[in-house]
Input
Amino acid sequence: MAESTTQNRRLITDNLEQLLSILPAPLRSQLQAHAQLDSLIEVVLDIGRQPEARFPEKAEFLTEQVVTRTDLDYCIQRVGHFSGDNRAGIERTLHRISAMRNRQGEIIGLTCRVGRAVYGTITMIQDLVESGKSILLLGRPGVGKTTALREIARVLADDLLKRVVIIDTSNEIAGDGDVPHPAIGRARRMQVARPELQHQVMIEAVENHMPEVIVIDEIGTELEALAARTIAERGVQLIGTAHGNQIENLMKNPTLSDLVGGIQSVTLGDDEARRRGSQKSVLERKAPPTFDVAVEMLERSRWVVHDEVSVTVDQLLRGRVPNPQIRTVNDAGKVAITHELPKLIETPEPTAQKSWRSSSQIPVVPLKEQIPVSPDSNMFQTLLDASMDRQDRYGNEIAWAGPNGEDLPLHIYPYGVSRSQLDQVIRTLNLPIILTKDIDNADVVLGLRSHVKHHSKLKQLAKSRQLPVHTIKASTIPQIARGLRRLLNMDEPGTPEVVDLRMFMGDESDDEMEALEEARLAVEQIVIPKGQPVELLPRSALVRKMQHELIEHYRLQSRSFGEEPNRRLRIYPA
Output
């Protein structure tokens, strides 16, 4: 009978007695009396060595007697046939028995791994499974990839009533024998005679059995990766696993990189290389990824979800840090979704002499104390709030220093720059800056480049007072925001580009917010990721001006077309 327990709201079925029945009597009796039998992972039998039982936290010897040839033969006679990958099973169970052979082909060791059907393991990604997107599971051995794969197949077949076909190379998903294990539900299983034929069976499944979903375990060869792409291009949902802990592992693996779109070297022209600030030879994604979503299974209850693999790969190739979802589940079965802050951002040293200029990133709270950030929140505001509210070890507030060692807030003397726009940016971004009309009280001068260039008296005045002069090209919201961030040494290449639409608004009407949101979505979802131009809806001249400034913030070009009242903006890719 199947042994079932409820743990963390998960039903576990392991048929453990059937695995113990293949072991010699002394070993079987030792395990049956063991206090941690329910958490047994595997039993290792090597000829001439003591038999070993492995548990999550430890491994221990079962007897002092070494394993003999007779013990191995006893086990081999009670399991199924060993296939080309030296794996066998027990009929109608999920247990896996793997063999080690000597040079003559004789079996000299067995690894008897416990197979468990765990119901409820995919709560964290239930929405992704039901979305119809192709999902790739990554993670170290033993983290539960195959268990999750089995549960996904059951949910798709039984709950969503889809036609699911499992490509079961080692009979590990649906168990040994001709009748599949009940854990896969109504899903069908195609067995693979030899591991090297897996890619052929994958194509055969699509051509002969009209599946809506194909489930594959351990994509490991170039032919299998090619077959997976062929299946995805035919409109079939793919659920699979691959060797590697993270997406970066696949990108560096020439055999499997096609699963995430493939990597190719591209030679840029002089202008494009200068615009990007990169070398002329760069790496770029070659094609759309085979899988839409990638899940890195760090732990059994903590998974990292890249819901757009193409975006993640592009960011990694450009040296940026992706911001994936972190999904966790607690003992009550409740799923929490957060976003991890980029790890390139360092924590500043807690000293009163620390200056913004001496740190190349925005100071934030330590990674272990990070604040969960939702996709719609203002990350810049979160980082700034976390950095400004700091205390030393005695509970005293730390006075952060400005770019030249001044205590914040920084006093700025504006020259030729719109004071109302400066106030708007400072207030919206909550920057530690105060505008002053008295140059004697200023820490720095911020001026319009064309004005400062022809004003020698201002230069002499600033020089006599040892005031640095910073200039911006135009008195626009994007230029002002960039100039102020540069003054506080926040405008670094690794800093996430965060747009607060309130910076570009006038009286904060609903029409203005709607128009700016339309422009922001067009840039972030179409122009930048897909490289396609986009035309916006017709707007008034004042609103179009706000949209122009917002688009300039992204360092993109925009033009107005048409006649009033149908005049509208067109946004061009970089």
